[in-house]
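Final report, Chapter 2: Outcomes

The project's central promise was a pipeline that accepts a single protein chain and returns its three-dimensional structure in a standardized token representation, suitable for archiving and comparison. That pipeline is now operational. To close this chapter, we reproduce one record exactly as it appears in the project archive, with the input sequence first and the structure output second.
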Amino acid sequence: MEYIHREFSREKSAYYDIVVVGGGLAGLIAAIAAARQGANTAIIQDRPMFGGNASSEIRMHICGASENQKKPEFEEGGILHEIMLLNKSRNDSFNYSIWDMTLYEAAKKEEKLTCYLNTTMTDCVTKDNTITSVRAYQLTTETFFTLSAKIFIDCTGIGTLAMRAGADFMIGSEGRDEFSEPDALDHHTHDRMGNTLLLKAVDRGHPVNFTPPSFARHFTEEELRFRPHSTGFTASVGDTSDYTRMTAFSTSAVDYGYWWIEICGKTDDFFSEYEDIRDELLSCVWGVWDHIKNGGDHGAENYDLEWVGILPGMREGRRIIGDYVLTENDILANRRFDDGIAYGGWAMDVHTSGGLYDFDKHPSTIHCFDGAYEIPYRCYYSRNIKNLMMAGKIISASKLGISSARVMGTCAIGGQAVGTAAAMCIEKQLFPRELLQHIEELRSNLVRDDCLIPGFCGDDGDLIKGARVFASSHKDGHEPKHITNGSAREGLYISDGISKNGENIRIIPEKAVSLKEVRLTFDSCFERPIKITLSDKRRAQQLPGVPRELVKDYKIELMFGGKVIVSREIRGNFERMNIHTFEDILTDEIRLTVLATNGCPDVRIFRIAAYGGNTK
């Protein structure tokens, strides 16, 4: 028998304006934003799907500044909200395969975005504190890639690219002397939050037996006394002083969880322990379920496991040092910054350093606060690597700062801000730090793209801001003038029903304007959740279909001298922001006729804005 031994390797090179490493929500949205702004962009993702902790591999639902609608005015907009609405329009069954497909579709439809899935960045080349290229390997095609770019964005979740490039970073927990944070530890430690595997169970309506695998760890009721794991479980609240309280567990179910099955590792180098941590987590998650099913009455007799994760979700890694470090002091003060480009509102959620094995402690300490804080642009680029930016839970923040800013909603809007900024750097031929001289333009561009920056409207070039508005009807306090106030969050026009011929809105600018684009921002009801989730509790909070407040069918017309110059009709809309582009149309009136909503009896519009050529 003849044996053939052949050695070969595929080598490919490509050049982009921007390379994003990491395809979680922060990385995916950063890449989409950069591509939409015109930058030739690539994204490297080491998994076969996008989404990171939100994907079907881990299945953590998206939390953000609204704290599960406790602060609905701070619900995240922009690309994240757009993707979530798209998913809600087709996925009332909360199917994670459809969610994966929705994220994949969002990436693949961008013409200027190239996706490298199943591809791991292995190294980078840095010269004069500037990254010139990254090296990556695609497992499925056995191909090595060398990708060069002008700007690189680290969205790995643990700062791998930054570390390889020689960027300054922090890790562990800072002492009180480092940033003067009131709730910091007395001195620096290597404490960090750990990794978790989630599970989903279903009620079969009849008793279901469970036989644990041989590697399952045994847990006692005493060991789990501070961790919710049965129907009706209640734990003590603890300290409730001012803004600090221990996690309070009210009535709980056994169908979904458990975030507190958390392993932090045994050494300072928990990156090298990842496989060991995964193995330990597997023994714990199956052991916890064994305890629930076979360790006493936990109200789970009829419950059967439907899914158990095998890829741990990671909470904390390196934090890359930028020109500013976000701290607890900024959060508690609801601080605003001249270069604020994103925001957070989730409580400072600090998990116990021993994770699941800290049996005598609550699994997390919550530092609550009202309102929201801004995150400055200076937290999103490296202080010592000239062309390195970052988004996600590796931004420039202290341990307490990132304990709030690490949740996926906050990471996602930061990703959109960074992708937009990176594209501006390409357009203006600047390094990220140099873009500070154009920070007002960046902030205004983000507002234009339906991103919230608390307290900031800016000047995004809206040619009909302050224009006269007339409507066929309106409710008191929700006059049509709100439509052109320049804000997609403050002031809401609401009609008084919908007539059989539709509700008519007329916008008349002071002078005729040459338009290339009109953006309509409808109400998508931030008060009601629309996120993909495994939690029956969170599912029960949602209504079928897209938000009923959204405009469904409408016609928009650009007028001049009383004549219709161009007309567009839309049916079946489910998006909050609708963008219509034109070939430089001179108009002295914009007409919008709303024919139907997705179920709401009234028309609800936040903003209509127009952009384009010079005022005539």
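Archive annotation: The chain has three domains: 13-170+375-448, 195-314, 468-615.
This record, like all others produced under the grant, will remain available to the consortium after the project formally closes.
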